[in-house]
Each structure stands twice: as structure tokens, then as C-alpha cells.
């Protein structure tokens, strides 16, 4: 199996490199914070009682991804957050998190809030999906 390349000196094609790998930094000594990913969907009475829209509890029907990152001993001003379509990159003086997201997101419409009493950064991102029989909007 050989892959034809336009340039004879390249050792891989750009399609073979995973998206977001330019953010990888294996030599960074900062530790990775604890985090959890959950999915959120908007349901109404037509979904709960009648099942009219065809939504189910799977992640395929969710509209948002919520990421809760524990950042003990961190101030809000120390947090640097960069969100791309498939990558979340968080850096603080003591912690670093490079997270490849399970679904593409709309990086322009996200929200983040820092819960200082819990020392948690909560990031909510809108999933970018193609329209199908489940996701109409």
C-alpha cells in the first residue's frame, strides 16, 4: 500500500495528520486537570410526553456539550482558553488541557463561566451538526 504524494520528499499527507495535533505539546510538564464531559439537549412537553419530535436520550440528539474542568488554586485571570471546531485548549500556570472534542462545535457561539467557590470552569459549546431527521435546527 503506497500513498501517492504531490511532493516526493514528504513522508505523510496532510489528510493523515489528525485535526488539532498542532496543539499537542508532549514536553509541557504541567499536569492535566480533572474534567467531565456531559451532553445537553433541549426538550419540551412534546418530547417528554408525546415523543413527537423523535428525540431520544442518545448524544446524537443533543445540542450542547458541557465540559466542567476542575482548576484548584486558580484565578479567573490566569485562564487561557482557545476553542477550535474540534479542539479545546486550556492553559493555566499549573495546568494544561488539550481536549479533542467528540463532535465538531461552533467555536464562535460557546460560553464559559468560572465558578470560583467550586473552582470549576464550565464551558458550554453548541454542537455543529448537519440537518437530519432528528436535528431540524
Structure overview:
This protein has about 140 residues and is mainly beta. The chain has a single domain, classed as Immunoglobulin-like, CATH 2.60.40.790. About 5% of the residues lie in helices and about 30% in strands. It contains 1 helix and 7 strands, in the order E-H-E-E-E-E-E-E. The strands form 2 sheets. The chain has a 4-stranded antiparallel beta sheet, with no helix packed on it. Strands 3-4-5 form a 3-stranded antiparallel beta sheet, with no helix packed on it. The radius of gyration is 19 Å and the shape is flat. The mean pLDDT is about 80. Belongs to the PIH1 family.
List the helices and strands and how they pair.
Elements: E1 35-40, H1 45-50, E2 64-70, E3 80-83, E4 87-91, E5 96-100, E6 111-115, E7 120-126
Antiparallel strand pairs: 1-2, 2-7, 3-4, 4-5, 6-7
Give a short overview:
InterPro entries: DNAAF6, PIH1D1/2/3_CS-like. With 137 residues, this protein is mainly beta. It has one helix spanning 45-50, and strands at residues 35-40, 64-70, 80-83, 87-91, 96-100, 111-115, 120-126.
Key attributes of the depicted protein:
four-stranded antiparallel β-sheet; Immunoglobulin-like; flat; single chain; 137 residues; mainly beta
Distance between the termini: 42 Å
What is the top-level CATH class? Mainly Beta
Q: What is the residue-mean pLDDT, rounded to a whole number?
A: 81
Gyration radius, in Å: 19 Å
* Low-pLDDT regions: none
Q: Element order, helices and strands?
A: EHEEEEEE
Proportion of beta-strand residues? 25-35%
Give me the oligomer status.
single chain
- The CATH architecture: Sandwich
Query: Main β-sheet, in a few words?
Result: 4 strands, antiparallel
The secondary-structure class comes to mainly beta
User: Which strands sit side by side, in order, in the main sheet?
Assistant: 1-2-7-6
What number of domains?
A: 1
What's the helical proportion of residues?
A: under 10%
Number of strands: 7
CATH topology (fold) name: Immunoglobulin-like
The DSSP helix count reads: 1
Note the overall shape: flat
Biased composition (Acidic residues): 16-26
Protein name: PIHD3 protein
Region (Disordered): 1-27
GO molecular function, one term: dynein intermediate chain binding
